[in-house]
Protein: ABC transporter related protein
Organism: Dokdonella koreensis DS-123
Amino acid sequence: MPALELHELRKIYATGVEALKGVTLSVQPGDFFALLGPNGAGKSTLIGIVSSLVNASSGEVRVFGVDLHAQRAAAMRMIGLVPQEMNFNLFEKPFDILVNYAGFYGIPRAEAIVCAEQELKRAQLWDKAQTMSRNLSGGMKRRLMIARAMMTRPRLLILDEPTAGVDIEIRRGMWRTLREVNAAGTTVILTTHYLEEAESLCRNLAIIDGGRIIEQGPMKALLAKL
Ligand code: ADP
Ligand code: ADP
């Protein structure tokens, strides 16, 4: 059963813009998948629909077989989302940010404490667990966003342009954390407009342009074509 299955997904915004023109796509469990495309291609719209922030105009979305439209809550429980904008409290410490986030999702405190240690270590932030977040570097703040999203134990982690506008050193630190998340069994899907990022991280990818998937397959096969 695919981790994510999209069938003939369409989105027409109220403005008349047709952002997705029938996208059919399937991502296998355990994959590290990139959706690569230029600005305006429809990447954010697609991620917005899968993460329930945007309503599709038509089409189907299934998360591990669960229909997003019919069983939204059950599907959303399997998804972790890393938003582009940093939206945690800068006057809290990373450890508290993670434990409180888990609490919001009903995870028992004792479990959340164990999980927070694991996620902070995976994100190379364990030594910053008790540092006020406003004092973290840009790269640390971004890795904290990944650690936080992992607190609910999602089977599918989704990131929309996670490294947009950051320098290569910050990007590499995030890549390392994402590789570890994927190695532990979580399916990862990210959007990017950097071929280099897709190439470095992903096993499979789809190229989207003008609201349509124009290529899809293993990274290696697509690189050979370019
Ligand atoms: P719905 O999801 O109900 O169809 P829309 O997403 O179409 O609603 O509308 C959301 C708002 O974003 C609208 O007010 C629209 O004017 C605005 N908007 C229009 N064009 C853009 C754009 N290119 N990027 C971001 N927001 C836009
Ligand atoms: P990408 O993430 O690949 O840059 P988007 O999904 O943001 O692409 O945008 C796809 C198309 O939809 C663009 O033409 C964009 O201007 C338009 N668009 C995005 N969001 C909205 C919105 N809320 N309302 C109207 N048009 C939008």
Q: What stands out?
A: Residues 13, 15, 17, 19, 37, 39-45 surround adenosine-5'-diphosphate (ligand 2) (CB under 6 Å).
